[in-house]
Design goal:
single chain, 495 residues, mainly beta, 5-stranded antiparallel sheet
């Protein structure tokens, strides 16, 4: 029992002593010195254990590292720092529970790293097509380039930048400068061969005219040629060169950049050249059933636009009654038929390419077709109400195809025209005709310009019954007188 008490007392005492030692700043004393690529922490008064070192410069986040201090190794080097830069520093003992005590800071005596010298930076290789340099210094802030700097993912000591297109096939000099360092900056020069060219950086200009030419900006110091291959969407097996491209068709074009046997592909452009068609349409001929149009086609973007066989035109004429469309007519004129006579139409020409509408129709002013021949009279009724009177009426259900609606009626006796009439309604009466005579009756529709087919019929007048009756009356009256005279005459002769 006494031994247990002695043992517990010794452990308690040793714990108290250790706690007092860990809280004694004299066990966290250290010195700082500049070394190549960074600074060194030398522990001068310490107990064995893990220590946390934190260093901070004015412009960046703090750097924190952990090291084991022992009798065999009481110093710790921190590298990959910025040259000619002052760093604040602090050291702390890390306990088993993760707490930190015995912090000793020397902020009042910040340490300045050394400057760079020849050989501190060397050429690296990390990202294809990039110029890379490596150093045990932190050179991310020293690269004096106009392009974005990238850190190598597999090697934190390397930093790379993508050369500009104009840098290809030249020697590029990179300056490593620091505001805090005096003296001349480090300069490294590297040849940038054609292999460094990123074809996607070559942006061909989309052509806007036909025949198509594709332009691009190539590295001026390389002897390069470019050949473009274009494909119509949906037709990968039909490659074309730019001069062969057609309008109103979507293409994808990629250029092959050649330097000797080495090749790179440009970025791909997708485009369609839509010709700015301008149609001048005029009416060249009008009949009663057709309107003929002619037009000229101009385009600022597409020279000789009519040379493309897929370019066609539709002609159409529309009225309030009907419409007529002529598909795939000539390339400069068309004749739209099947129209109504003496009807006002609005006509237009619509261009298409490969059966697809490509432009708004171009219209001409309202145009009226000429008068046509009136349609035939439907029926005609002829009567002879009196012996020397002829009456006629007719019905017309068709179109007069002209400005007026008139009926003409004529009566002939042989080759002689006896009487003629013109009326809006088809009702005529011919009086005081000759008795017992055959007349030729003719009735025709007339629209003010053209006369339609005539209805013809021979009509007979009757005998003059009134004259016959008068003659008979006279005859009956004179017959008794004649008989008396005969009797008297015979009596005289018998004497």
């Amino acid at each position: 029992m006494a031994g247990v008490c002695v043992l517990g007392f010794l452990l308690l005492c040793s714990g108290i002593i250790a706690l007092e030692d860990s809280q004694n700043p004299t066990y966290c004393s250290y010195t700082v010195s500049a070394i190549q690529f960074g600074i060194r922490i030398d522990m001068t008064s310490f107990i064995r254990g893990n220590y946390d070192v934190t260093i901070t410069d004015e412009s960046g986040p703090p750097t924190e590292e952990t090291f084991l201090a022992s009798n065999q190794n009481s110093s710790h080097d921190i590298k990959h720092l910025k040259p000619c830069t002052e760093y604040q520093h602090a050291v702390a003992l890390i306990h088993k529970d993760g707490s930190k005590t015995c912090i000793h800071s020397r902020n009042e005596t910040a340490e300045r790293t050394t400057g760079t010298k020849s050989g501190d930076v060397e050429e690296g290789s990390c990202i294809p097509g990039y110029v890379c340099y490596r150093s045990d210094w932190d050179i991310s802030s020293l690269l004096s380039v106009s392009h974005q700097v990238k850190e190598c993912q597999n090697d934190s000591t390397q930093f790379c930048f993508k050369p500009a297109v104009n840098d290809i096939c030249t020697n590029v000099t990179t300056n490593f400068t620091s505001e805090n360092c005096t003296g001349s900056p480090l300069k490294l020069t590297k040849e940038v061969p054609f292999d460094f060219l990123d074809g996607n950086d070559i942006k061909p200009k989309v052509p806007t005219k036909l025949p198509a030419t594709i332009e691009e900006e190539l590295p001026p110091n390389c002897d390069l040629t470019v050949k473009y291959i274009c494909q119509e969407n949906g037709k990968p097996n039909e490659p074309k060169s730019p001069p062969e491209l057609e309008p109103f068709t979507e293409y994808s074009c990629t250029g092959q950049i050649n330097k000797g046997y080495a090749t790179k592909n440009t970025s791909t452009i997708t485009f369609s050249v839509d010709c700015d068609l301008h149609l001048t349409v005029k009416v060249t001929e009008v009949t009663d059933t057709s309107i003929q149009l002619s037009w000229t086609t101009d385009s600022q973007r597409c020279k000789n636009v009519l040379q493309y066989p897929k370019l066609g035109f539709d002609c159409s004429c529309v009225s309030r009654y009907d419409s007529s469309t002529l598909k795939y007519p000539g390339r400069t004129s068309c004749n739209v038929g099947g129209l109504r006579p003496f009807t006002e139409y609005t006509c237009q020409v619509r261009p298409f390419y490969g059966g697809r509408d490509i432009h708004q129709p171009t219209s001409v002013g309202k145009q009226k077709t000429k008068a046509g021949k009136p349609e035939d009279i439907s029926s005609m009724v002829v009567t002879v109400p009196e012996n020397n009177v002829i009456k006629v009426s007719c019905k017309h259900h068709g179109d007069f195809k002209g400005p007026d609606r008139i009926f003409k009626a004529s009566l002939k006796n042989g080759a002689t025209v006896v009487k003629t009439f013109e009326k809006k309604d088809c009702k005529f009466e011919f009086r005081d005709l000759s008795y017992s005579t055959t007349y030729g009756l003719q009735v025709s529709p007339y629209n003010g310009e053209l006369t339609g087919n005539s209805k013809i019929k021979d009509v007979d007048t009757f005998y003059n019954d009134k004259a016959l009756i008068g003659f008979l009356i006279s005859l009956i009256t004179l017959l008794p007188v004649a008989l008396v005279l005969v009797v008297i005459l015979k009596c005289r002769m018998s004497r």
